[in-house]
Amino acid sequence: MRVGVVTFPGTLDDRDAARAVEIAGGTAVPLWYADEDLQGVDAVVLPGGFSYGDYLRAGAIARFAPLMDRIVDAASADGAMPVLGICNGFQVLTEAHLLPGSMIKNEQLKFICRDQHLRVETTDTAWTGRFTPGQEIVVPLKNQDGQYVADQRTLDELEAEHRVAFRYTGGNPNGSRNDIAGITNARGNVVGLMPHPEHAVEPGFGADLSGAGTVGMREGTDGLDVFLSVLEHLTR
């Protein structure tokens, strides 16, 4: 399976996302923001970083990149291409209206970097199928504009339709409404997640913790199942 990894000006986690795809067994395909060709990929990852320096709003300029038009079309088409937005990628997905709500400055108005406990709320998406509902995982979190906000009607719809994909546990790090760390669209092919699963896929380079219990230093690999999930979804 070919998974495209998009690079915008200011992206910094594209190589990490590509490595996560390769470790999971997929083929990572570099995609350049200014191109208009998805190169026949089966899924797309919008990685983390600071596209266009987060000018205006985080993700607001990247949303108008030529390649984003192709991604929006592919995600919305009958084929429902799986798309994952991580951190800045999540911000881009909200700006592109593939996901509802918006991301604003953290409640503390500070950049946050730490290992973060999450609870998987739904497995009915292309990116969470290998998890079990209620499963707890730990992946790194690093953001400045990570506070998820939406009007009450949208929040009620997300909860009623089981479209909260991941929720913060053990404390809300940025003030996100309803402790939301990640959401999905109604079809389950588009997922946005603020913490970074691609930084928890390889022993020795992951988190210092795991939802499964104590691990050795940097041995947490809880994020790998995000990438394994989409590969399994694509081969069904």
TrEMBL record:
PROSITE patterns: GATASE_TYPE_1. Pathway: Purine metabolism; IMP biosynthesis via de novo pathway; 5-amino-1-(5-phospho-D-ribosyl)imidazole from N(2)-formyl-N(1)-(5-phospho-D-ribosyl)glycinamide: step 1/2. It holds the Pfam family GATase_5. CDD domains: GATase1_FGAR_AT. Its EC number is 6.3.5.3, 3.5.1.2. Keywords: ATP-binding, Cytoplasm, Glutamine amidotransferase, Hydrolase, Ligase, Nucleotide-binding, Purine biosynthesis. It is found in: Cytoplasm. The active site is at C87 (nucleophile), H196, E198. It comes from the Bacteria. It catalyses: L-glutamine + H2O = L-glutamate + NH4(+); N(2)-formyl-N(1)-(5-phospho-beta-D-ribosyl)glycinamide + L-glutamine + ATP + H2O = 2-formamido-N(1)-(5-O-phospho-beta-D-ribosyl)acetamidine + L-glutamate + ADP + phosphate + H(+). The keyword Magnesium does not apply. This is Phosphoribosylformylglycinamidine synthase subunit PurQ. Part of the FGAM synthase complex composed of 1 PurL, 1 PurQ and 2 PurS subunits. GO terms for biological process: 'de novo' IMP biosynthetic process. Part of the phosphoribosylformylglycinamidine synthase complex involved in the purines biosynthetic pathway. Catalyzes the ATP-dependent conversion of formylglycinamide ribonucleotide (FGAR) and glutamine to yield formylglycinamidine ribonucleotide (FGAM) and glutamate. The FGAM synthase complex is composed of three subunits. PurQ produces an ammonia molecule by converting glutamine to glutamate. PurL transfers the ammonia molecule to FGAR to form FGAM in an ATP-dependent manner.
